[in-house]
Design brief:
Keywords: Cell membrane, Glycoprotein, Leucine-rich repeat, Membrane, Receptor, Repeat, Signal, Transmembrane, Transmembrane helix
Number of domains: 4
CATH topology of the largest domain: Leucine-rich repeat, LRR (right-handed beta-alpha superhelix)
Helix content: 10-25%
Shape: globular
Number of helices: 8
Membrane topology: Single-pass type I membrane protein
Largest sheet: 26 strands, mixed
InterPro entries: Leu-rich_rpt (IPR001611), Leu-rich_rpt_typical-subtyp (IPR003591), LRR_dom_sf (IPR032675), LRR_N_plant-typ (IPR013210), LRR_R13L4/SHOC2-like (IPR055414), LRRC69/RLP (IPR052595)
Main location: membrane
Strand content: 15-25%
Oligomer: single chain
CATH class of the largest domain: Alpha Beta
Number of strands: 54
Radius of gyration: 33 Å
Family: Belongs to the RLP family.
């Protein structure tokens, strides 16, 4: 790291020297003209807004009557009698926008440039393939934080004087070519967060001056090249979040100057190489979320400079039979899912600098230790263990605690009063906590996430969060809370789950102020009153679940205002009237969303959304916030809805599950339902539907669960490779006159004389083609997807019929 500091310092001193002398310097005429041309491009492309005057003010020094060496953002070489321009720093100071080859055209005329910084702007298009070839003196090139695409041009690897190259946070594709090995002076190479594919070339080992190599967040595959062990001056190696495989090179211990090694989130296997114990300067070792195996070596704790050690999410095992005395002073430790058992290791009590501790997904038992509560950690993650007892009051008096995750343990008792304002994330779900929810939670102005779900909290009072609070996520589902639905929840809330409690009365009008709310789940309470019209104002809503309440009234056309809605469950209420045709305009169920839920962007760790999906064939499954965006779901079952099924529902092309059962719906099943190309489950049972099953059902290649029973349907059941697999007679039971191969009831038209050989041959070919294509695509892929997510299982219909309909 000392060498990196020296490198940065040299550029800083160079910049200061240039500033101190620029008053006496002049630059070449053609270089001044090139810079003025650049100014014209910048001014032309600026957006006229409040900040434009500030930007123009910065350019006022750029004019033909002054020397360019005196201009802001321009550096000149004082050692040259011609006073050449050698540095140009345009990092995030101007709205550089547009195609890079056009914007930078004048820059490429300044052939004496040694340093060019255009980072954090809005340049797009491919990196110019010719222009950079003119800048043969270039030593420092920073282009991160733009929107460059395409591959890295070969000419960039011919800039033999390059010492610093950063192309991070763009959209660069292709592979890293072996030509990179020609940059013999390179000290830093950074390509973070691009779309680089392929393997790291062996020629990377030729960069013997390299101090920092960072390639995280790409799609790099293959093994880590053995030649990397030749980079004896390397201090920082970050290859995390790629698809690297095979073993970590055994000679990685040759990199004796290494201070940071991050190989996390790959597919690396094998054991931790013993040569790592030779890295005496190592401060950070991150190997989590790979497929590493074997016993965790105790010599890791003998590396005296080690501060951050993350080994979780592998197949590694902690030796619980040994006691260690670490020689290092850790600030961050993750042994998640490392087979740690017994009590929390006592040697951690001597790690007085520890800020982050993750021992989740182990078999740790016993109480929460008093010494850990008094250690003033910032993050404590002990979820998915066997810890029990009550929590020590000292835990909630820490001034540093920001994240406390204790979900899925056996903790019990009441929560102590919370006397700290530093907590940002509090996750205590799936324990045995009881008593009231502490009112002191409302004093934590930094609180972002609160998850107290699946406990035994009781009482009718809930902490009031001020309008200026930061809280974005509240889940207190599956408790014994009662009274009115909490109204004071802050204005920044994005997720609210109060389901499976005993809240009663109508919904508070204050909910209409939650303009950022994406997820509202109040199922299984005693909510009464008319369907609240103010919910139609929540335009950001993606999930609305009000099932199993006593809500009355009709569904308004205004529900279509919730254009982002992807999951709507109003089942088992007392709703009446028609289904509004405007529901067919819910664009969240028509198009695949371009961007994920804001919740998934904010919370990088797994956040469970408990019991989100309704009972489908009596099978309950929860979804996590990570896979919400792949589902669209509409359930209006078990109400008193009447009238015809609106054909407009056939527009909901992304709909996977549709349940309109147990209503008073009449008329025909819309032909447009054949356009529900993503539909996997359809339940129209227990209505008054008549007519034939539309022939368009033959197009539903994804359909694998169907219930049309207890209606007045007649005629032939359509045939298709997919429908022909749905042969359970209960699917079509108690209709007036259905026939077809699925229920082994021949239709009259099937008794007609056989077709001509030509027609028979044509039909046989079509059926064979459909059977070969439609069935595997529709049935197998759908079943595999739902099974992989662990969400969808089918319970036989006769089981479901044992359950009485609630009215």
């Amino acid at each position: 790291m000392a060498n990196l500091s020296l490198l940065s310092g040299s550029y800083f001193m160079f910049f200061i020297l240039c500033l101190s002398l620029r008053g006496s310097l002049s630059c070449l005429h053609d270089q001044r003209e090139a810079l003025l041309d650049l100014k014209d491009v910048l001014v032309r492309d600026m957006v006229t807004d409040n900040s434009t005057d500030l930007f123009l003010g910065g350019l006022e020094t750029w004019n033909s009557s002054s020397e360019c060496c005196q201009w802001i953002l321009v550096q000149c070489n004082s050692r040259s009698s011609s006073q050449e321009v050698t540095g140009l720093n345009l990092s995030s100071l101007f709205p550089l926008r547009g195609k890079a080859s056009t914007v930078l055209e004048s820059v490429f005329r300044i052939k004496t440039l040694m340093s060019l910084d255009i980072s954090y702007n809005s340049l797009h298009g491919e990196i110019p393939r010719i222009g950079f070839g003119n800048l043969t003196e270039l030593a420092h090139l920073d282009m991160r934080g733009n929107s460059f695409n395409g591959s890295i041009p070969p000419r960039l690897f011919r800039l033999r004087n390059l010492e610093f190259l950063d192309l991070s946070v763009n959209m660069i594709e292709g592979s890293l070519p072996g030509d990179v090995g020609g940059l013999k002076k390179l000290k830093q190479l950074s390509l973070d967060a691009n779309i680089i594919r392929g393997e790291i070339p062996e020629e990377i080992g030729n960069l013997i001056e390299l101090r920092k190599l960072t390639l995280p967040g790409n799609q790099i595959s293959g093994r880590i090249p053995l030649s990397i062990s030749q980079l004896r001056k390397l201090e920082v190696l970050q290859l995390q979040n790629n698809s690297l495989s095979e073993e970590i090179p055994s000679d990685i211990g040759n990199l004796v100057n290494m201070t940071t090694l991050d190989l996390s989130k790959n597919n690396l296997s094998g054991e931790i190489p013993s040569s790592i114990q030779k890295l005496g300067k190592l401060e950070t070792l991150q190997l989590e979320n790979n497929k590493l195996s074997g016993e965790i070596p105790t010599w890791l704790f003998d590396l005296k400079e080690m501060k951050k050690l993350h080994l979780g999410g592998n197949r590694l095992a902690w030796n619980n039979d040994i006691t260690i005395t670490p020689k290092c002073t850790l600030s961050s430790l993750s042994l998640r899912s490392c087979s740690v058992s017994g009590q929390i290791p006592r040697w951690l009590s001597n790690q007085t600098d520890l800020i982050f501790l993750d021992l989740s997904e182990n078999q740790i038992e016993g109480d929460f230790p008093q010494w850990l509560a008094e250690q003033n950690l910032g993050t404590i993650i002990l979820s998915d263990n066997k810890l029990a007892g009550s929590l020590p009051p000292q835990l909630f008096q820490s001034r540093n605690l920001s994240v406390l995750a204790l979900s899925r343990n056996n903790f019990s008792g009441e929560l102590p009063e919370i006397n700290t304002t530093s907590i940002m994330v509090l996750m205590l779900s799936e324990n045995n906590f009881s008593g009231p929810v502490p009112k002191s939670l409302s004093n934590i102005y930094r609180l972002l996430l609160l998850d107290l779900s699946t406990n035994s909290f009781s009482g009718s009072e809930f902490p009031a969060f001020g309008e200026d609070g930061l809280i974005a996520y509240v889940d207190i589902s599956s408790n014994k809370l009662s009274g009115k639905v909490p109204a004071a929840l802050g204005l920044n809330l994005m997720m609210l789950s109060l389901s499976q409690n005993d809240f009663s009365g109508s919904l508070p009008q204050n909910l209409s102020n939650l303009s950022q709310l994406e997820h509202l789940d109040l199922h299984d309470n005693n909510i009464t009153g008319e369907f609240p019209a103010f919910l139609y104002q929540l335009s950001s809503l993606q999930v609305l679940n009000l099932r199993n309440n006593s809500i009355e009234g009709s569904i308004s056309d205004d529900l279509s205002n919730l254009s982002s809605l992807r999951i709507l469950d109003l089942s088992n209420n007392n709703l009446i009237g028609d289904i509004p045709p405007s529901l067919g305009n819910l664009t969240g169920m028509i198009d695949t969303p371009d961007v994920p839920s804001t919740l998934s962007e904010i919370f990088s760790f797994q956040v469970e959304i408990h019991d989100l999906i309704v009972n489908w064939k009596n099978s309950k499954r929860g979804l996590s916030n990570r896979n919400l965006d792949i589902y669209t779901f509409l359930d209006l079952s078990k109400n008193q809805l009447s009238g015809e099924v609106p054909p407009s529902l056939g527009s909901l092309k992304r709909l996977k599950l549709l349940n309109l059962s147990y209503n008073e719906l009449s008329g025909n099943i819309p032909m447009s339902f054949g356009d529900l190309e993503s539909l996997e489950a359809l339940d129209l049972s227990d209505n008054k539907l008549d007519g034939e099953i539309p022939g368009t059902f033959a197009k539903l290649q994804e359909l694998n669960t169907l219930d049309l029973s207890n209606n007045k349907l007649a005629g032939k059941i359509p045939e298709s490779p997919q429908l022909d697999t749905l042969i359970d007679p209960d699917i079509y039971a108690n209709n007036s006159g259905l026939c077809g191969v699925q229920i082994d009831a021949p239709c009259e038209e099937d008794s007609q004389p056989p077709e001509s050989p030509e027609e028979e041959k044509k039909e046989t070919w079509f059926s064979w083609e459909a059977a070969g294509i439609g069935y595997p695509v529709g049935f197998l892929s759908s079943t595999a997807l739902m099974s992989a997510i662990g969400y969808f299982t089918v319970t036989p219909l006769h089981h479901r019929r044992r359950h009485a309909r609630r009215r």
